[in-house]
Specification:
Layout (H helix, E strand, L loop, with lengths): L2 H54 L1 H4 L3 H16 L6 H8 L10 H14 L7 H19 L4 H18 L2 H10 L2 E2 L7 H17 L17 H35 L3 H18 L10 H9 L7 H14 L7 H19 L3 H17 L3 H11 L4 H13 L11 E2 L2
Parallel strand pairs: 1-2
């Protein structure tokens, strides 16, 4: 074989190896999507059942919120190891500062979040799904042996976890790829994230987890005043989302300094949280906030201060050590704030609530592509230009704040 023949042979072998690796990654991503989607379905359906049970027995359950908090913190101290770091551990693994995500994180975060919701804490659920997906997928990636496979599969698992829970696979793909470093997108994980996200979304739906979706029927005409209204909404949602992230970080640091003993912290502050949740609208601000989201889109009662109190209770719940996430509460905060702003601007209620639902999530997580696609996957692709404008402006005005303290900012 001549020199040219040897060169062609090496090129063919290189291409064959590359496609072989892609095929392997794709097959593994299918398995990740099925596994994570199934766990998401279990977690989500149990959480919804516990939410219904709490609503029916709120007076009895809210009393035990402080004791459950002590149990959660004590359990993490005894057997959690690094699991107590939660999303910070996922980010550390993404930056290769941690080599191992303990598998015990998965049952711990699931059970502790179930307990937080059952006994009335105000928290979300996406943190659980992302941690589950990240932990499982990162473990698999470490064993594959391909270049950068642990980071690629970590992002893939994060995307699968988000997609399986919310069944918004496109938004999940971009969320996982852009959340580690604000202003940067990890396109190296694009293909496995696409595969795992769509498979996880389909799997969780097949196993009975329902997707939240609203059909908007707003007829909007383009005009200069309308353009200024969109800009105004983007600024407000951006500032509020940034403030939420900033106050959450400040509150965590404040309570950690105020209470050196985590058990004492969650018991004392849990008692106060329990009393406030009981006295102020009798559990209206407990749990995910899906009740507020439904009220926003079904024309039911939304108070002008709902968004403010939901934000305050969520911050307090998470800052003192209860488990969960922030995203679903952010959806509810954005939707209820949107209802208030719609009346001020004279725009359709559902339309502005939808913009707030997406944009506040984006501003608080310091992401731009994920909230745009959350908006269109939940409310319809016909409204893509509006979500793009408002979410982009919200991203600009959030002050580079994020609910994820370990997130890095691209210089």
């Amino acid at each position: 074989m001549g020199e040219n023949g040897q060169l062609i042979s090496r090129i063919v072998k290189g291409i064959s190896k590359e496609y072989k690796n892609i095929l392997i990654i794709g097959i593994i991503s299918i398995g990740i999507g099925i596994l994570v989607g199934a766990i998401d379905a279990l977690f989500g359906r149990v959480l919804l059942a516990l939410t219904d049970f709490r609503t029916q027995h709120f007076n009895l359950l809210i009393i035990f919120l402080p004791l459950i908090g002590v149990f959660i913190v004590y359990t993490y101290q005894r057997i959690g190891k690094n699991s107590a770091k939660g999303m910070s551990l996922i980010f550390a693994a993404g930056f290769e500062e941690e080599n191992v995500i303990p598998k015990r994180l998965i049952p711990l975060v699931m059970v502790s979040t179930w307990l937080t919701h059952l006994f009335g804490g105000s928290a979300g659920r996406e943190g659980v799904a992302v941690q589950i997906g990240g932990a499982l997928s990162h473990t698999i990636g470490r064993k594959i042996g391909l270049q950068d496979s642990s980071k690629v599969f970590l992002i893939t698992g994060m995307a699968a976890g988000f997609a399986g829970l919310f069944q918004t696979p496109v938004a999940a793909i971009f969320f996982a790829m852009e959340v580690l470093v604000a202003g940067s997108v990890e396109y190296g994980a694009l293909f496995p994230s696409i595969v795992a996200s769509f498979v996880a979304s389909y799997t969780s739906h097949l196993l009975g987890l329902e997707k939240f979706r609203v059909e908007l029927h707003s007829s909007l005409g383009l005009s200069l005043p309308f353009a200024f209204q969109m800009i105004f909404l983007g600024i407000i949602f951006g500032v509020v989302g940034g403030l939420f992230a900033h106050i959450l970080a400040y509150s965590k640091n404040h309570f950690n300094k105020r209470f050196k003993n985590p058990l004492l912290k969650i018991f004392i502050m849990g008692c106060m949280l329990s009393v406030l949740l009981f006295l102020i609208h009798h559990g209206r601000y407990s749990g995910l906030g899906t009740n507020l989201i439904q009220n926003s889109f079904l024309g039911e009662q939304v108070y002008w201060y709902d968004w403010l109190l939901k934000a305050a209770f969520t911050i307090l719940t998470l800052a003192i050590g209860y488990q969960g996430g922030e995203v679903t509460p952010l959806f509810s905060i954005g939707a209820t704030l949107g209802v208030v702003l719609s009346g001020f601007l004279g725009l359709p209620v559902q339309f502005v609530a939808a913009l707030g639902y997406a944009a506040l999530f984006g501003s608080a997580t310091n992401t731009i592509l994920a909230p745009i696609f959350i908006g269109v996957e939940v409310f319809g692709y016909d409204y893509l230009p509006y979500f793009f404008v408002v979410c982009a402006i919200a991203y600009v005005f959030n002050g580079n704040k994020s609910i994820y303290g370990a997130q890095r900012i691209r210089k």
